[in-house]
Amino acid sequence: MTALLETKGVWQRFGGLIANSDISIAVEPGEIVGLIGPNGAGKSTLFNLIAGVLPPTQGSILFNGEDVTRLPAAQRCQRGIARTFQVVKSFETMTVIDNVIVGALIRTTVMREARRKAYEVLEFAGLAARANVLASELIPSEKRRLEVARALATEPKLLLLDEVLTGLTPVEAQTGVELVRRARDTGVTVLMVEHVMEIVMPLVDRAIVLDLGKVLVEGKPADIVRDPKVISAYLGDRHAVGA
Amino acid sequence: MDNSFAQRRRRDLLLAAGFTAVAALVPLFVKDVYVQNIMVLTLMYAALSQSWNILGGYCGQISLGHALYFGLGAYTTALLFSKFGVLPWFGMIGGGLISAVIAMALGYPCFRLRGHYFVIATIVIAEIAYLLFLNWDWAGAALGIDIPVRTDSWLTFQFTRSKLPYFYFALGFCVVAWLVTFWLQDSKWGYWWRAVKDNPDAAESLGVVVFNSKMGAAAVSAFLTAVGGSFYAQFVSYIDPESVMSFHFSLLMALPAVLGGIGTLWGPVLGAVILIPLTELTRSFIGGSGRGVDLIVYGTLIVLIALARPEGLIGLFSRKRKGASR
Q1: Taking every annotated instance into account, which residue ranges of this chain make up the domain ABC transporter (chain A) (predicted)?
Q2: Which pLDDT tens digit goes with each residue over B205-225?
Q3: Which of A132, B67, B206, B241 has its CA 20 to 30 A from that of A22?
């Protein structure tokens, strides 16, 4: 079975700081994979390397068997990698539907088609009622969903979610979880960076835990939460011994 | 909801057709040459500002150096006609193409700059070009170029006896610039430009090639601006660096859009209709001693608009229609 996404020995150094060291992970088609770890573990760096914000110092990234290590973000999107931003980056002076149209335009240049597609995606994300509102008028949880909708409009094979569930109320987070699950059911593979363990763990098929720039463990969520190494990384050694 | 968008597009087209028809009839009633002159200039600046708006408004790359493209259009036409007898129509297209190419060549380094730094670069580059033309003997240097007078005809695009042909050309130019904007607005480019303006990083992540879309906007904008410069050369039939390339023109292209509503379809037209007659009238009332008074007028207007309607005067109209963003 060939992985949809694979990183091979990826390193990222920022001056003297090693943010990612020798990271090799794989994401299979149809999975929801959680990328977790304490603050400063290198999750966001790895996420940005996969999204194409910057090239890694060393190592390679394969998508669908193709080496995309040096491709800029726009071309990765063309190939089927879409992302959201941790700090939402809506097009504030544009309406909600126009935001999504920008994403849809990568697959078609026929405006009528892009508009139809965008509306469809908005319905999928539960934002259709807000289609003609300016993005700046949305409440934070709606903006998060707009980020996801915009990314989905590019018809990705791999959807990268950067803390889309963080900072939401439990009800909003539940809506978000449903959305991610439904996206996966349409055939999109999901790699999500998350902080909030109790929301992510029931959602993901597999979790990869980073700590200090390295892969600490990976496996089924149920095993991960009991793993002493993970507990000690999050809470300190004292708690791990107790477990 | 799909309908509301199509309806808005149709309404814009109908409005444009209505305004054009009314404008075309105005000269039948207004015979005063001075007023006709102001009308020509108003239409020309409306079109120029519309062109500026493509790069500055939609794509968000504020240029205060568009006088460069205006001047290139004027000079290309005037030089080709006076030195080689090439008809102005070819000069117009040639000037447009030259400007588009230069805009892209300048964009190559400049589009890496963001915000204020980009604005400063555009001002400086236009000033350099101004100084070069001021010292370029073959192009008339500071003395400028007198465009040789031939017979009045559409072929030579010269009309010494009447301003009406210029008026209709300016009207046509204005309509074309509006139509180009109208068409681009609902195209891939239009959406890409607005995305680039609002958030380049997010745009890039959605497959928008930010750099290329800025280059595209610059080329279209510069081409149309040069056509305006070319027209102006024929209209005044004498050009020098001061009269076609000074910073003043860069301001006069940006201000109507800013006043009327930056990045909107109607903003530049609305802004020009208010600003240009006001400028011309204050200039003529105060006369030669009042040079710079028009700048005070702009300044006052901009301050007022910034305080009352930061989105431009067009905001007065769209306020009632909820959710209408342009």
Answers
A1: 5-237
A2: 999 999 999 999 999 999 999
A3: B206
Query: Residue range A143-164: average pLDDT?
Result: 94
The pLDDT value given to residue B201 = 93
B325 occurs within a structural domain: no
For A32, the 3-state DSSP assignment is strand
- CA dihedral of A106, A110, A116, A119, whole degrees rounded to 10: 40
Q: Which residue has the tokens 């076609």?
A: B244
What pLDDT was estimated at residue B271? 92
As a whole number, the mean pLDDT across chain B is: 88
**What is the predicted pLDDT for the residue at A153?**
96
Domain of residue B93, CATH code: 1.10.3470
In a domain? residue B324: no
Full domain range(s) for residue B292: 2-318
What proportions of chain A, in percent to the nearest 5, are helix, strand and coil? 40, 25, 35
For residue A39, give the DSSP letter: T
Measured CA to CA in angstroms, residue B39 lies from A184, B73, B284 at distances of 60, 21, 15
Strands A17-27, A5-14: parallel, antiparallel or unpaired by DSSP? antiparallel
Under a CB-based contact definition with an 8 Å cutoff, are residues A140 and B12 in contact?
Answer: no
* Termini Cα distance of chain B: 16
How would you list the strands of the sheet with A17-27, edge to edge? A17-27, A5-14, A58-63, A66-67
Is pLDDT above 50 for B324? no
Inform me whether the C-beta atom of residue B5 falls under 8 Å from chain A C-beta atoms: yes
Would residue B286 count as lying in a domain?
Answer: yes
Look at residue A241 and tell me whether its pLDDT is greater than 70.
Answer: no
Domain count, chain B: 1
Q: Model confidence over B89-128: pLDDT tens digits?
A: 998 999 999 999 999 999 999 998 888 899 999 999 999 9
Q: Does residue A239 or residue A109 have the better pLDDT?
A: A109
Cβ distance A73 to B194 less than 8 Å, yes or no, reads: no
Is the residue at B173 inside a domain?
yes
Cα atoms in the 13 Å half-sphere on the side-chain side of A30:
3
Nearest-CB residue to B208 (from A74, A114, A115):
A74
- Residues from chain B that touch A128, judged by Cβ atoms under 8 A, are 1
Calculate how close chain B gets to A229, using CA atoms only, in Å. Answer: 35
CA distance A40 to A207: 17
When scoring B59, B193, B205 by the number of chain A Cβ atoms within 10 A, the one with the most, hence best to mutate, is: B205
Tokens of A77: 């999107």
Please name the residue of chain B whose CA is at the shortest distance from the CA of residue A128: B1
Interface of A with B (CB under 8 A): 51, 53, 72-75, 77-78, 82-83, 85, 89-95, 97-98, 101-103, 105-106, 109, 111, 114-116, 119, 128, 131-134, 150-151, 154
Report helix, strand and coil shares of chain B as percent, to nearest 5.
Answer: 75, 0, 20
- What residue ranges define each of the domains in chain A, with the CATH number in brackets? 5-242 (3.40.50.300)
For the stretch A53-80, pLDDT in tens is 999 999 999 999 999 999 999 999 999 9
Q: Are A90 and B263 in contact (CB < 8 Å)?
A: no
